[in-house]
Amino acid sequence: MPAPAVDILMYHSISDAGGPTSITPPIFAAQIDAIAAAGVPVITLDDLLAAKAGQKALPSHSVILTFDDGFGDFADAAWPVLHRLGFAAIVYLPTDHIGRREAWRGANLPPRRLMSWPAIRDLAQAGITFGSHTVSHPDLSALPPEAVEAELSVSRRRIEDKLGRSVRHFAPPYGRSSAPVQQAIRSHYATSVSTELGQAGLDSDFLNLPRLEMFYFRDGAAWRRHLSGRGAPYLNLRRALRAVRDLTSRPWERV
């Protein structure tokens, strides 16, 4: 039997804001509906951890839904679609920006507003998981060790204090990390997702889990081919194009 393949989907804003970190609500709904139509189970990062520990069996192909930055349109546009289908998801929060507009390097113009803590608490009560996306949304690989430690620990404690539940999962801003940063992440979190393009499995590095940037799958036919197991050529092409782009782009310009 082949090893389980897990598509960890990466979303940011579900809106008409434009740019590579926004997907329009109709395209998002079509992508999520395609998962349901294909019969691919939606699991959680905790399910993946349980399978790694031998406590749970995974299906041959499954999906995990992740959302970076905690934009307000998650509550307005994404959650109704997920709730309709009973799908779980995790949202990664940059805690200094909650209830404000994005103000980090590479932010969208015009800047998008993030959810408030009351909205986040309501979603947590409804079953949405929240992880850390640092305090201030910096490039962790460019910070000294003490600043990395503060970004990791303060953000986790703030979310835990606000929601009254433990925070086990992390996403580094811009997907930027390093060996020392990953070691620091390991002391606070059980998983960390990346912007590396690919499928995850039980043999993946759980502190650098690959994801699928869903901006690349706005074409419904390409997404349905991937869900049916026929998407390898397109994924390989996207991976090659990203490798070329990453040679010249800055971290906040990457998706």
Write the layout of secondary structure elements.
Layout: E1 5-11, E2 13-14, E3 22-23, H1 25-38, H2 45-52, E4 61-68, H3 72-85, E5 90-93, H4 117-125, E6 129-132, H5 145-163, E7 169-170, H6 179-186, E8 191-197, E9 209-213, H7 220-227, H8 232-246
Parallel strand pairs: 1-4, 1-9, 2-3, 4-5, 5-6, 7-8, 8-9
Descriptive notes:
This protein is an alpha/beta fold. It has one domain (5-253): Glycoside hydrolase/deacetylase (TIM Barrel), CATH 3.20.20.370. Helix content is 37%, strand content 16%. It contains eight helices and nine strands. The chain has helices spanning 25-38, 45-52, 72-85, 117-125, 145-163, 179-186, 220-227, 232-246; strands spanning 5-11, 13-14, 22-23, 61-68, 90-93, 129-132, 169-170, 191-197, 209-213. A seven-stranded parallel beta sheet has the order 6-5-4-1-9-8-7. The protein has a two-stranded parallel sheet with strand order 2-3. Helix 1 (25-38) runs parallel beside helix 3, helix 1 (25-38) runs parallel beside helix 7 and helix 5 packs parallel to helix 6. The chain starts with a strand and ends in a 9-residue tail after the last helix. The mean pLDDT is 95.
Bulk shape: globular
Q: In which order are the strands of the major sheet placed?
A: 6-5-4-1-9-8-7
What is the total tally of β strands?
Answer: 9
Number of helices: 8
- What summary fits the major beta sheet? 7 strands, parallel
Oligomeric form of this entry?
Answer: single chain
Provide the number of structural domains: 1
Portion in helices = 25-40%
CA distance, first residue to last residue = 33 Å
Q: Determine Rg (CA atoms, Å).
A: 17 Å
Level-1 CATH class name: Alpha Beta
Order of helices and strands: EEEHHEHEHEHEHEEHH
Question: What is the CATH superfamily label?
Answer: Glycoside hydrolase/deacetylase
Which ranges are low-confidence, i.e. pLDDT below 50, for 5 or more consecutive residues? Answer: none
Strand residues, percent: 15-25%
CATH topology assignment = TIM Barrel
Mean pLDDT score = 95
